[in-house]
């Protein structure tokens, strides 16, 4: 076992976990803006539950990408180039979504607002799906040649595992968003979020569970089974808890489900980081895809210092915005004057 | 159709990066100025500074988000379109990128979110500290990405092992002379953008106040500040907001230019040592000499020395740019090409990784047209922006702007000058590195074999069709979003301070929420 690459494999898993846990709910809330929110007041309520924090959440994705580049350049190069089209879509979706969050409230016409609502909802959906497809394919494999290049053409990614993984992350984000809203809001939205989560949980988690079991069957590690059983227990606990209206415990159970599910996937795949479906000899592994020990050590020192610091201030910010929001807490929109003009010329 | 993936990939990288770098300098420069404005408010408690902070802060945020949105593309497209590049440089290049995310982006994004929603929720001191944290995050992110870029210009701190550079000295990478010069130069350039932005927009509002008859000019030429009680926010404090902003913007533009010139000079001397071909190409100089070309005519785009004729040259100046004296013979393209051919070969290796370029003759000369004009546009617009700043400070010394509509248009269009200078500088330095994506380090202690041709960097598995799809879709989306960003900026600029501070708009804005409830947001999307 190569120690440094293995540590970094775990760290990359942690970064993806951080991303799915944090941006999971803001992608979910983004999707729920269309359909779940009933009127403009509710849409603004939803948007403002993630307003102060979504951008910090998204940095987990950037960090996961950057850290993969630094620690496993071969993995980064193969995965990102093999999924060229879905990642292009993910980027476009993330661009629209980010701009929509900031710009939506800066105009007043119905057209302006509903246009950006669409961007935000569809952007969140597409981004979640494409990230899920990417994560699924790095666990089930792509037709990589000896150089690590995809040989299956531009649409090789469009496969059952990608769809299952994509739906898995979409479903997870929706449920996660509902649970987050049940924790972060008060009034009718809270009630509705709780009821919808209690009703929809089994369906929303189904695809991600299929993906976890798929990876388990491909690799069949004992540890994987143990983690899956524990993850399943958490999922059931979450369902029971949200049905009973225990919002916070349900959210924690959901978080544990995510941790154990991701742990099961990554431990099953290890030591592969991206299997080749052409020839196991071409598979990218923690050993053959990683950077030098020197680089990994330098980056480990950086991560050991800064990951805890980031966690401390990010948690601090969440605590500042911990209180539940009601529609009454949202100030009315202010119309920007067309132009300042004096009348006494 | 036979499309060259390298060419499409380069167009995409060029378009997305130049576009991204329209938002970034404004984020860096304006962020610093907004933090200074809020610091002034914190120290003096004067409402003028609060209004200035809120107004410029609003424009800062409208622009910031576009920088964030287009920045994600940057992080991903190395692996997507340039997988061979990523494999080659990953051991050393990925580290500053990961550090950028972990150290800088988190700081920037988490604290900016807190700043936006933190008005009235945090203590004034803490709220100010939060903005500074976000601005420091932005400035740090620029450092890390320039460290990464500078390694492509001047690779240091690595050894070649199994044909790939492997990092052996992270401190050498982080203190690369190229990076330190480029960082300070870029940041000074970004500050100039912030200055011109304040100057142009503040000028517009002072002019507007004069045109509307609010402010007048007394017999001694000094301003007589008035107010228009019937227009929300058009009071005497409003005058101070714009007057102060204008002066700060003007001084910022001038001071930033001095720093740009000093750091640019350091950079030119490094370029002479590290990338002599870039300098020769920027001068369109075929032969060794000391003359700086003021104007060269002929067909620069033919990339052949024989087709260009220097018309106006100043002897000694090129030597000064390159080496600090007036007599050094700076090598021209004709001298350098044989040197490059001897050091790095005349033909691309016959290898699949070079694609269509395998076995082809190598043209070591970057595009003369782009480098020559890029260099001159950078300097020209930089000087223009600084001169405009100085002129504006002089013209407005008696307290307001002239009533001239023409000058107002000039002040507003002047905002584009430092943007053009920034873009031109980056296009020059990136295109001037060609045909290398990682330029060789010619220093005797440099590392043999650590260089990479752009032709060998593209993703082998990505088809021209995929590249074309992303090129077209990103360009279209960027174009549309530019319209939205500019539209919003213009709308908020026209609206004046009230657009960012509804509470002073007492005639139109009646908050119906219960302010005694602590959970009411002071700002909401």
Automatic annotation (TrEMBL), chain A:
Top-level taxon: Bacteria
A Pfam family per the record: Cyt_bd_oxida_II
Residue stretches spanning the membrane: 6-37, 83-103, 115-137, 157-183, 195-216, 222-242, 251-273, 293-316
Membrane among keywords: yes
Keywords recorded for this protein, A-Z: Cell membrane, Electron transport, Heme, Iron, Membrane, Metal-binding, Transmembrane, Transmembrane helix, Transport
Topology class, membrane: Multi-pass membrane protein
Primary residence: membrane
InterPro entries found in the cross-reference section: Cyt-d_oxidase_su2
Compartments reported by the entry: Cell membrane
Family (UniProt): Belongs to the cytochrome ubiquinol oxidase subunit 2 family.
Name of the protein this chain belongs to: Cytochrome d ubiquinol oxidase subunit II
Organism of this sequence: Brevibacterium pityocampae
UniProtKB/TrEMBL annotation, chain B:
Its membrane topology: Multi-pass membrane protein
Keyword Heme belongs to the record: yes
Alphabetically ordered keywords of this record: Cell membrane, Electron transport, Heme, Iron, Membrane, Metal-binding, Transmembrane, Transmembrane helix, Transport
Cellular compartment(s): Cell membrane
Keyword Calcium: no
Transmembrane segments: 20-38, 59-77, 97-117, 129-152, 180-204, 248-268, 373-394, 406-428, 467-490
Pfam families: Cyt_bd_oxida_I (PF01654)
Family: Belongs to the cytochrome ubiquinol oxidase subunit 1 family.
Protein name per its UniProtKB record: Cytochrome ubiquinol oxidase subunit I
Organism encoding this protein: Brevibacterium pityocampae
């Amino acid at each position: 076992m190569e120690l440094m690459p293995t540590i970094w494999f775990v760290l990359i898993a942690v970064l993806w976990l951080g991303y799915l846990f944090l941006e999971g709910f803001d992608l979910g809330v983004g999707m729920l803006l269309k359909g779940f929110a009933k009127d403009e007041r509710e849409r603004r309520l939803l948007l403002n539950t993630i307003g102060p924090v979504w951008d910090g959440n998204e940095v987990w994705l950037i960090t996961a990408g950057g850290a993969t580049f630094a620690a496993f350049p071969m993995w980064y190069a193969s995965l990102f180039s093999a999924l060229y089209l879905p990642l292009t879509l993910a980027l476009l979706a993330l661009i629209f979504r980010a701009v929509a969050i900031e710009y939506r409230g800066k105009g007043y016409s119905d057209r302006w607002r509903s246009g950006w609502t669409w961007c935000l909802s569809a952007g969140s959906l597409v981004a979640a799906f494409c990230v899920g497809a990417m994560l699924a394919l790095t666990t089930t494999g792509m037709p990589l040649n000896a150089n690590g290049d995809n040989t299956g053409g531009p649409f090789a990614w469009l496969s059952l595992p990608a769809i299952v993984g994509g739906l898995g992350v979409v479903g997870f984000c929706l449920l996660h968003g509902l649970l987050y809203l049940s924790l972060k809001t008060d009034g009718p939205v809270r009630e509705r979020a709780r009821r919808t989560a209690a009703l929809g949980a089994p369906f929303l988690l189904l695809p991600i569970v299929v993906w976890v079991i798929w990876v388990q069957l491909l690799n069949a590690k004992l540890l994987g089974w143990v983690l899956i059983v524990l993850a399943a227990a958490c999922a059931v606990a979450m369902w029971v808890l949200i049905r009973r209206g225990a919002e916070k415990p349900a959210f924690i159970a959901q978080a544990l489900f995510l941790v154990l599910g991701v742990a099961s996937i990554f431990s099953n795949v290890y030591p592969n980081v991206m299997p080749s479906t052409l020839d196991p000899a071409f598979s990218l592994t923690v050993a053959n895809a990683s950077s030098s020990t020197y680089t990994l050590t330098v980056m480990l020192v950086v991560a050991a210092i800064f990951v805890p610091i980031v966690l401390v201030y990010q948690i601090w910010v969440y605590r500042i915005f911990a209180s539940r929001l009601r529609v009454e807490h949202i100030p009315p929109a202010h119309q920007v004057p067309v132009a300042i003009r004096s009348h006494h010329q | 159709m036979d499309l060259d993936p390298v060419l499409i990939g380069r167009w995409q990288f060029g378009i997305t990066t130049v576009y991204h770098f329209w938002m970034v300098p404004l984020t860096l420069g304006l962020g610093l100025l907004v933090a200074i404005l809020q610091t002034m408010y914190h120290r003096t408690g004067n409402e003028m500074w609060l209004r200035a902070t809120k107004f410029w802060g609003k424009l800062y945020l409208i622009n910031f988000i576009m920088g964030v949105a287009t920045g994600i593309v940057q992080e991903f497209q190395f692996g997507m379109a340039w997988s061979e590049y990523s494999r080659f440089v990953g051991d050393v290049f990925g580290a500053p990128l990961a550090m950028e995310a972990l150290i800088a982006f988190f700081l920037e994004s988490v604290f900016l979110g807190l700043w936006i929603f933190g008005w009235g929720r945090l203590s004034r001191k803490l709220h100010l500290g939060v903005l500074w944290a976000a601005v420091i995050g932005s400035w740090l992110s620029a450092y890390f990405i320039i460290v990464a870029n500078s390694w492509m210009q001047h690779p240091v701190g690595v050894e070649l092992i199994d044909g790939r550079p492997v990092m052996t000295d992270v401190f050498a990478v982080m203190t690369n002379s190229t990076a330190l010069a480029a960082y300070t130069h870029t940041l000074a350039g970004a500050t100039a953008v912030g200055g011109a932005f304040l100057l142009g927009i503040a000028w517009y509002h002072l002019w507007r106040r004069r045109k509307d008859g609010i402010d007048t000019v007394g017999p001694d030429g000094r301003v007589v500040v008035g107010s228009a009680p019937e227009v929300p926010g058009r009071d005497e404090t409003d005058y101070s907001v714009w007057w102060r902003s204008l002066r700060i913007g003007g001084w910022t533009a001038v001071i930033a230019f001095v720093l740009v010139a000093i750091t640019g000079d350091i950079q030119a001397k490094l370029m002479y040592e590290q990338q002599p071909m870039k300098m020769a190409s920027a001068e369109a100089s075929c032969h060794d000499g000391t003359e700086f070309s003021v104007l060269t005519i002929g067909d620069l785009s033919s990339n052949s020395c024989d087709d260009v004729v220097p018309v106006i040259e100043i002897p000694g100046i090129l030597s000064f740019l390159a080496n600090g004296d007036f007599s050094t013979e700076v090598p021209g393209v004709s001298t350098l090409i044989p040197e490059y051919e001897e050091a790095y070969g005349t033909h691309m290796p016959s290898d699949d990784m070079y694609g269509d370029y395998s076995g082809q003759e190598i043209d070591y000369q970057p595009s003369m047209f782009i480098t020559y004009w890029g260099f001159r546009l950078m300097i020209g617009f930089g000087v223009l922006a600084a001169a405009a700043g100085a002129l504006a400070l002089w013209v407005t010394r008696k307290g307001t702007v002239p009533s001239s509509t023409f000058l107002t248009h000039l002040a507003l269009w002047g905002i584009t000058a430092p943007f053009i200078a920034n873009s031109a500088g980056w296009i020059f330095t990136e295109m001037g590195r060609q045909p290398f994506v990682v330029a060789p380090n010619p220093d005797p202690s440099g590392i043999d074999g650590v260089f990479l041709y752009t032709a060998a960097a593209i993703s082998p598995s990505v088809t021209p069709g995929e590249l074309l799809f992303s090129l077209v879709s990103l360009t279209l989306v960027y174009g549309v979003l530019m319209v939205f960003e500019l539209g919003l900026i213009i709308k908020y600029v026209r609206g004046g301070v009230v657009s960012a501070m509804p509470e002073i708009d007492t005639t139109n804005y009646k908050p119906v929420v219960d302010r005694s409830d602590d959970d009411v947001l002071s700002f909401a999307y």
